[in-house]
Amino acid sequence: MALELVQGDFDAFFATPFHAYGKETPYVSPMRSDLRKYLDAAQNPLMKAGSPLEFYVVKRDGKPVARATAHRHLQSNERYGWSRTCFGFFDAADDAEAIDLLFSAIEDFAKRHGDTEIMGPFNLTAMQMVGLVTEGFEHAPYTDMVWSPEWLPVHLKRLGYGREFPMATWQFNPQTVPDDQPLTDRARAILGSPDWSFAPITRRDFKERMEEGRLCLNGGFDTNPMFVPLTAEEFQFQAGEMMWVMDPNLSAILHYKGEPAGVVICIPDLNPFVKHAGARYGLRMIWSWLRGLFAPKRAVIILYSVMPEHQGKGVNAALLHRVLGALKKGGYQSCGGTWIADVNGASLAQLKRLNAQVLHRTYLFRKALA
User: Fold this and answer.
1) Residues 131 and 207 reside in one and the same domain
2) Total Cβ atoms within 10 A of residue 305
3) How far is CA 169 from the centre of its chain?
4) Which residues contact 84 (CB under 8 A, 6 or more apart)?
5) For the residues of 133-192, what is the DSSP string, one character each?
6) What tens digit of pLDDT does each residue of 303-361 get?
7) Which H, E and C letters describe 313-340, residue by residue?
């Protein structure tokens, strides 16, 4: 059976996981329009700032069976002194020949750009989906969580890619967590002080609040491994459309004397809706919306972060206490959280207070080039 590597075929790129995985797996595609935007050099701030990107599809007898991007994050390489090519949006059937051909193209990209290592998956930055699932394949992902089948890590190991940077996604049932369980003495002091106040993220003040959220994200994550501060354009590009799906009761900025100190962004889980609609806008999406989105039972915490000067003061606990109360009041039966690295002890401690359980174990994969 004939194999063919093609570059820049968006229709085939979008279709690949649907062919490779089928309808019965937990995989949920990004919206087709979002994926096109991510790969468009005229729209994506990463590429507008000079980072090169190519995307590939391997077809077997005309059917797309493997895909991935190859890209360089110039700001990341400069900040950390790396000479690194990243791969992302890696999806493939259990087809060794197709995956070999795909990664030969990625490694060729790296060599053409003079890089000494390849690492991924990054879809396209560390603020989007990261890693491959290595445990928990049976669990359906929430919005902004990666899902991948069990054979992909096996093929990467065969190709010489080693596991690095262990992470996990997680979930908890808000209805079973006592109201005050996330609280610490310092968090109680915050909630009782007039110096501290919550500002919900509503459509009316979305841009202002999300800019405060960006500042909290950049400040709180600045010393985290691999993090690169996001510009206002990048943050808006990645998070701007959340305005239309946010439940204002779930997300907020915590102010200290009127200045942003912490942020939590939690949204209804859209994945069942997106999966039923085939990740496309149209009549099927309208039907999916009418069938389920108005009464979501699952939510997902996209991010929470605390400014450096307020870390260790109970801000995280105060934020999670507020989210827990809103989830309970809204009738949500489960809440997930996107990846947290094993090295992030503070966040993992907060999860224990919520009786959270690991949903997926994930890793990045790295290979040094000769």
Assistant:
1) no
2) 24
3) 10
4) 72, 73, 76, 77, 115, 116, 117, 118, 119
5) EEE-TTSPPPTT-----THHHHHHHHTTPEEEEEEEEEEE-GGGS-TTTT--HHHHHHHT
6) 899 999 999 999 999 999 999 999 999 999 999 999 999 998 888 888 888 999 999 99
7) CCHHHHHHHHHHHHHHHCCCCEEEEEEE
Nearest to 362, CA basis, from 150, 143, 85, 73 = 150
Domain match, 270 and 218 both: yes
Compute the distance between CA of residue 213 and CA of residue 202 in angstroms, rounded to an integer.
13
Looking only at the bridges linking them, the beta strands covering 117-120 and 84-92 are parallel
Question: pLDDT by residue (tens digit) across 52-109?
Answer: 999 999 999 999 999 999 999 999 999 999 999 999 999 999 999 999 999 999 999 9
Same domain, 348 and 217: yes
Structural domain count, the chain: 2
| Residue 163 sits in the same domain as residue 180 | no
Residue 324 is part of a domain; what is its CATH number?
A: 3.40.630.30
Contact status, residue 185 vs residue 370, Cβ threshold 8 Å: no
Residue 262 lies in domain:
174-354
Rounded to an integer, what distance in angstroms lies between the CA atom of residue 32 and that of residue 100?
Answer: 26
DSSP state of 176: G
The enclosing domain of 62 has a CATH number of: 3.40.630
In a domain, 361, yes or no: no
